[in-house]
Amino acid sequence: MLCDLKDKFLNSIDILIKNLSSLPGIGKKSAARIAYYLLKTDKNYIHAFTNSICDAVEKIKNCKICGNYTESEICEICSDTMREKNIICVVEMPQDIAVIEATGIFNGQYHVLMGHISPIEGIGPDQINIKQLLQRLDKENISEIIIATNPSVEGDTTALYIQKLLAGKNIKMTKLASGLPVGGDLEYTDKLTLMRSIQGRLPL
Q1: Is the whole model's pTM more than 0.70, yes or no?
Q2: What pLDDT, in 10s, does the model give residues 24-48?
Q3: CB-count exposure of residue 161 (10 Å: 0-12, 13-18, 19+)
């Protein structure tokens, strides 16, 4: 309630900076620079920019099969008949798919967890798409699961949980090879490092 009361005394620039600084990776100084840049930018560009955000929020949804972002019921990757159907790469977020696709060396399917297991944050297995992964394995003829969660404590915890769930199933399980920085995100990993990690994936 106190924050709401304070907001009443902020002018439009302050509110813009505050909203921008709430974005991931944007501090108050960066938010201020962006805000003042926008204020001196052509208004037609600003309207087009804001419309594109609204348009994306309205149109983008999660693929019914893998969870990737798409404007259709099924994403382009899942509907591509030329891709290998027996390998699933498990990632935390949709943006991780874009990073792996940029390497050009993986031609299988994906499954997006939409997060990771984190007891500290109150995120358990039921809060991410692990159940959906198990349902896919029951329906699809999968021979290999590649665990490509982020190399962090939460990512490793999630990978270990999935590994235990799939123990005893006739499915090969691998993970990305070493070379990924501990505590880092796939989204910020350089292409060469990620390519080597995919090519040198290890059994779990």
Answers
A1: yes
A2: 999 999 999 999 999 999 999 999 9
A3: middle
